[in-house]
TrEMBL record:
The chain crosses the membrane at residues 26-47, 59-81, 93-116, 155-175, 182-204, 216-235, 256-280, 300-323, 352-371, 377-396, 408-428, 434-454. The lineage of its organism: Bacteria, Bacillati, Bacillota, Bacilli, Bacillales. This is Amino acid permease. One of its GO terms (molecular function) is amino acid transmembrane transporter activity. It comes from Paenibacillus polymyxa. The keyword Chloroplast does not apply.
């Protein structure tokens, strides 16, 4: 068995002779907005409060700095590989050329988990904020339709979560241009709301709230950094769009690095203001930013924050589902998943079947099962992908120095090695239960590969 057979073409249709490739419609600005759309969302509006209350205290700002540094290192590596291998599929596509089919499958299967759990988790948070907004107008859904199935609470299905996933699936099926346009509007709304929070909240900061600064010690800061890494999934999702980007050698690095820089600054600023406004012990709520404004009696602005949070999480869902559909499209086109999923709609130039399959599965999962409890699986999956991509830069430099690179990581192999080590270090901060779930998922994926993917692979058919 040749488990490490590699692609030689930079694009899937170059390898297989297929004409099934996506239309290039996006520029650097579109990519930057997609990144901001995915990175700014649950991380600010949901995770910050619990990470401060349970892990880091005011030291949360250091957690975002550490996570940001790890992301900057990984982003440089992603920028080089995405400008060298401008194909849909992100780390999966890179690994197919650099390491071979078996590791490409592992990365692809890892990313399926990463995007799926993240989308289900965010849709649950979206539902909570949306129901809170309705309650402000004295509108209440029947209890059975407000959350995932729980016989003790009388809930059956989270209807708002199902509806938002299906609406976004419909939008994605209309085409990349429509997706980008909608994302831009929502990004403007949520960034405006985040800046409004910072602008108002900074006048209510009390330095006493930053004492003690590290109530859980530095280990708590590291644990929080590993948890908030969930928020930085966005620039990985950008790289799945490489095949739909005009001049990817130039635009991919700009989109990845600029979106990460913007979002890291906003995350650090929000964590500084949030922990300065409210004692960290009181931040363990589902809507910490709105709670902080209610804490200082800015109820009207808190309502605006809820609107911004809904817009923010909508764009997160949009980009996560976009990334998931492009990943499955790429794996299907390579034969590792059923080939009917790589069917492209002639009018919209979108992978229509994979789009509706992904949307339907995630809608049902988020509506019926409390998957938000599995959020840490997204963090470990993201860190694993980042570590592999970082090592991939070193390997590809050595094996294919002839390839045209639109961006090159400085100080190779030092920076990629540092990136991989930081990611592995953060993975080790996650709970053993997260590791068990991650390993079980990968083992399940290997079974599918050996019983289906290996035999159906286009490379296997060619050989």
């Amino acid at each position: 068995m040749d488990l490490f057979r590699k692609k030689t073409g930079l694009l899937p249709h170059e390898e297989s002779g297929s004409t099934g490739h996506l239309k290039r419609t996006m520029g650097a600005f579109d990519l930057t907005m997609l990144g901001v759309g995915c990175i700014i969302g649950t991380g600010i509006f949901v995770i910050t409060g619990k990470a401060a209350a349970e892990n880091a205290g005011p030291g949360l700002m250091l957690s975002f700095v550490i996570a940001g540094i790890a992301c900057v290192l990984a982003a440089l590596c992603y920028a080089e590989l995405s400008s060298t291998v401008p194909a849909a599929g992100s780390a999966y596509a890179y690994s197919y050329i650099v390491f071979g089919e078996i590791l490409a499958w592992v990365l692809g299967w890892d990313l399926i988990l990463e995007y799926g759990v993240a989308a289900a988790s965010v849709s649950s948070g979206w539902s909570a904020y949306f129901q809170g907004l309705l309650a402000g107008f004295d509108v209440h859904l029947p209890l059975a339709l407000t959350a995932a199935f729980d016989s003790t609470k009388g809930t059956i299905i989270d209807l708002p979560a199902v509806c938002i996933i299906m609406l976004i699936t419909l939008l994605l099926s209309l085409g990349a241009k429509e997706t980008v346009r909608f994302n831009l509007i929502m990004v403007c709304v949520k960034v405006g709301v985040v800046l409004l929070f910072i602008g108002i909240g900074i006048f209510y900061v009390k330095p006493d709230n930053w004492t003690p600064f590290l109530p859980y010690g530095f280990s708590g800061v590291l644990s929080a950094a590993a948890i908030v890494f969930f928020a930085y999934l966005g620039f990985d999702a950008i790289s799945t769009a490489a095949e739909e980007v005009r001049n990817p050698q130039r635009n991919m690095p700009i989109g990845i690095i600029s979106s990460l820089a913007i979002c890291t600054v906003l995350y650090i600023a929000v964590s500084v203001v949030l922990t300065g406004m409210v004692p960290y012990t009181q931040l363990g709520v589902s809507d910490p930013v709105a709670f902080a404004l209610r804490f200082i009696h800015q109820d009207f602005v808190a309502g605006l924050i809820s609107v911004g949070a809904i817009a923010g999480m909508t764009t997160v869902l949009l980009v996560l589902l976009f990334g998931q559909t492009r990943l499955i499209f790429s794996m299907s086109r390579d034969g590792l998943l059923p080939v009917f999923l790589s069917k492209i709609n002639a009018k919209t130039q979108t992978p229509i079947r994979s789009t509706w399959l992904v949307g339907s599965i995630i809608a049902l999962a988020s509506g019926l099962f409390p998957l938000h409890a599995l959020t840490n699986l997204t963090s470990i999956g993201t860190l694993f992908a980042f570590a592999v991509v970082s090592v991939g830069v070193i390997v590809l430099r050595k094996k294919r120095p002839d390839l045209k690179r639109g961006f090159t990581v400085p100080w190779v192999p030092l920076l990629p090695l540092l990136s991989a080590l930081v990611c592995i270090g953060l993975m080790l901060q996650l709970h053993i239960s997260t590791w068990i779930g991650f390993i079980v998922w990968l083992l399940l994926g290997l079974l599918i590969y050996f019983f289906y993917g290996y035999h159906k692979s286009l490379l296997n058919r060619k050989s």
